[in-house]
Amino acid sequence: MWEGGAGPPGHCLRGRLARVEPVPRAPRLRWLLLLLILLGTGAAAWALAREDGLPSPSESAVIDPDVPDPFRYEEGRREEFERRAAAGLSHVLYEKSPGGVLATAERTAVFRAQIEAAAPDAGVEPDILEAIVFLESAGRPDAVADPKLEGAVGLMQILAETGRNLLSMRVDPVAARALSRRIRRAERRGERTAARRLRDRRARVDQRFDPAESVAATGRYLTFARERLGRSDFAVASYHMGVGNLQNVIRDFAATGSAPRSYAELYFGSSPRGRPAPHRRLAALGDDSSTYLWRVLAAREIMRRYREDPAGLESTAALHAAKGSSEEVLHPAGKTEAFDDGEALEEAYRDGNISAFPHSPRRLGLARDRRMGELAERLDRDPRLYRGLRPEALALAAYLARMVRAVDGPGSSLVVTSTVRDEEYQRLLVKRNREATRGYSLHTTGYAFDVLRRYRSRSQAQAFQFALDRLRALNLIAWVREPSAIHITVSRDAERLEPLLRASG
Prior knowledge:
By secondary structure, this protein is an alpha+beta fold. The protein has helices at 13-18, 28-51, 78-88, 91-96, 101-109, 112-122, 126-137, 160-165, 173-188, 192-205, 211-229, 232-241, 243-254, 263-268, 276-285, 292-308, 310-322, 327-330, 342-351, 391-408, 423-431, 458-473, and strands spanning 61-63, 355-356, 366-368, 388-389, 414-418, 448-452, 477-481, 485-490, 501-503. It contains 22 helices and nine strands.
């Protein structure tokens, strides 16, 4: 959220000069007196800054290269990274599932018998096959992605060509289209029995509409893929991107060292600088192919909770629905400390629960926007109150900036426009129509900050996008794109990053 008004200030030299108003000439003595007054005022302000208890930020802070990165992938931590990726990328399932995740889970559960029958031949757990049903069709055997029925169709969203040529299915899109028209007419007339019989006929001429045949065909695909890729997780990942595409990514990864031992190693071990070739190939696939396995695992967890903890699943769904990201899942209202007013915020600084945010574009890659906290004077407060973050959020911001620099180069820096607020400041922003959240704002907890959507180059924008996506896959952040900024909320897990951030003399 941009605090400074309708639009961000210029950050190019030409823009700044264009807004400088001409200053009338004045006698030299008047300028000298004015300079002395300003120097005196500045000294007094500095003295007050030292005495009022607000800590000064460490402008020389750096990420310590000697401290091990706690989120560097290691194969021994594969299950942890899989859990993180499933949680971090689950929001889209809560957001996009038709009727919501509970309705989708209820529809999906209807096909459990067909799923358990097909799973042994597929060589995967029934829960994984069920999760693919959830993700592909939301449990709707009539789901179609293409009105001509040549594209993805049915419970498992199988392409006509794939069904015919690879999975040995009976597929007749022309006959299925004709029957679909008759089904719609029967339904409009309220002829349910006729519609059911027509559906049965359609399932016989195009087996993608037959739930049992569709699930069994997916089992055959996973067997085929596992034989060629060597692992079940690779096979599941290939269901969206295709076996050939995944083989190419694996080949690129192996060309830079050893072959990947899991999809987690392939995904988290590929990056624009570390292993650029597999990263570029994954990114070029688009349509979220690279994260398909993580969304399958997220769907599996939803189905588990549907059976074991439906009330808890409903509560989680409500938290996902509250905002455009999963930020309230990370920090639910009522369970997260928010700062009511300036006094509460001052106490948080004194107790070390909030750390001052530095302006350190050269050392840390983080620049503090000059208008951050500018409305403080309207509350008769020091603007520095609104220039801070929770220590773990500050460490995450520095970690993010380091990730961007690793791709874009050492001169890259991000401009942070907003950090912590109290509820009084938040209400003032709402009153002044500054794009502020009217309800519960994560800025009032100290876990959120905003980064200006203005980049020095396309390379920096791409590096920033990579960092956002990777940190979300680690379930360290939730983020959402706003008109002038990227709004980022930091997980408590980021406290593991705090040892990396240190002061440098």
